[in-house]
Amino acid sequence: MNDTALRQDAAPAAARGKKKKTGKNIQYRLLSLICFVLIIGLWCVASYGHLVQEVFLPSPTAVLSKLFSMAADGTLWAHCSASIARVMIGWIWSVIVALPMGMLMANSKRFCAFIQPIIEFARYLPVVALVPLTLLYLGIEESQKYTIIFLGTFFQLVLMVADTVSNVDINMINAAKTLGANRFQVYKEVIFPAALPGLIDDFRLTIGWAWTYLVVAEMVAASSGLGFMILRSQRYLATDTIFAGLIMIGLIGLVTDWIFRIISRIVAPWQERLSDSR
Amino acid sequence: MKTGSSDRPVRLKVDHLGKVFGEGEQAVCALQVVNLEIRQSEFVMIVGPSGCGKTTLINIIGGLEQQTSGDVLLDGHMISGAGADRGMVFQGYSLFPWLTVLKNVEFGLKMKGIPAQHRERTARKYIRLVGLEGFENALPKQLSGGMKQRVAIARTLANEPEILLMDEPFGALDAQTRVVMQELLADIRRKTDTTILFITHDIDEAVLLGDRVYVMSRRPGSVREVLEVNLPGERSHNSLVLPEFLEIKKKIMDMLWRESNDAAMGR
Ligand SMILES: Nc1ncnc2c1ncn2[C@@H]1O[C@H](COP(=O)(O)OP(=O)(O)OP(=O)(O)O)[C@@H](O)[C@H]1O
Ligand SMILES: [Mg+2]
User: Which residues of chain A make contact with B184, given a CB cutoff of 8 A?
Assistant: First the structure.
């Protein structure tokens, strides 16, 4: 019928979009880079120009050489890997429990009524205030660090998952039902894939918070990890080590974010993103 | 046509259907005693003022909503919940954006547990029927509105439902695409002998496609009048200017006008 007409308007539009996008992409990357360069520039001016004392603001070269020496003797990797392991384990537990609970909350009014008040209550308890109790119950074992990270992320994540899942387009669920999908199939074939990009976003946000709580846990009772490294350096006024620690946490955060974005693009290439049309 | 269809078996029967949303003071009566019958291979249209309960009616028939009173019978059996025997096409397409056109059309067959090879063959057949060959591997986001609705129609037809329920399926399309889609649907119907219940705002669409038109009153909705459409010759866009066509169109327009006028006068 009007096949050729249909085909014509689909193909070139896609090609046009692609070309424009790569050009813009380079522009955005450049802008991000400029921001970093600017901050490092200011840092150079402040420290090499002796505007700020060395004990308060170490020079970029001092921090870099500290990073290199710590990388060479293996302490940097030891602290990083200890911290990464704690974040991952605590956070994964949180995901494992929060995912089914959140999905259930979104789809069962009864379960929601049962669980929501206690979660809302727990969500407002500052994790720092729970540290003494975790120390009392679990001592300074690794499990205490996992627990802190779990407590810090779990309650938020459950609510985020419930929200993301309940925002799945009801029309899509109705369409699936009228196509013969049963309750389980609606979950597996529609709700889960539809919610997946949103869920990955939720995971990305909570892993960021996990880092915050990790530092809390490591500053109280630990003998390894980036938080511990930063706290101990304060005692010796080793600001270069503090800066090295901060830079490492920031870099790990950037890499984590980047990994999540890639995962999101791999598992949900179908998603229409705002950034596609920018 | 009339003599032919009246001795066919009744497929769908809606019997004294009523629906009230909410309770107490907030209660909204959306449907009040709706009766209708659809026979095998009939194309039945519903028109009515906005908010009169058309979507509510079709959602109850589709099993997506529960009625307050009355029954819906498909081949003499009371329906319970949604099911593949009543295929629905919605105004908003409702495609699964993570699935390709082919996988979207296969969806219902997959739910039934039909093996992959077999369901692909069926899906391709219906994609061809709606004129989307060559787009099997495209994602919904790459398609225009008209193309999306073609996929939605193919997806529902591939399931081979007993009856096709369509709620203003072409409402979101531009006038030209709408005409193309109306022809497509008339063509599909000739080829597949499907039984169709179709809701529309567009009186031309109702008279052009329908064997019978149910005109609903304003809310609370009930059937105000049933009109048989008998047009000489093959239906096409030339039918739009036939005196028979215009006569039925005028009747429906008058009824709808009276409905909205009564509402405005507070009667
Ligand atoms: N979930 C609901 N809760 C309460 N009232 C509802 C609900 N759904 C529909 N209604 C009411 O029922 C009436 C009928 O709505 P419905 O959507 O069936 O109308 P419609 O005939 O399809 O209208 P339109 O032609 O604009 O699509 C409306 O007055 C609406 O406000
Ligand atoms: Mg409606």
Answer: 1
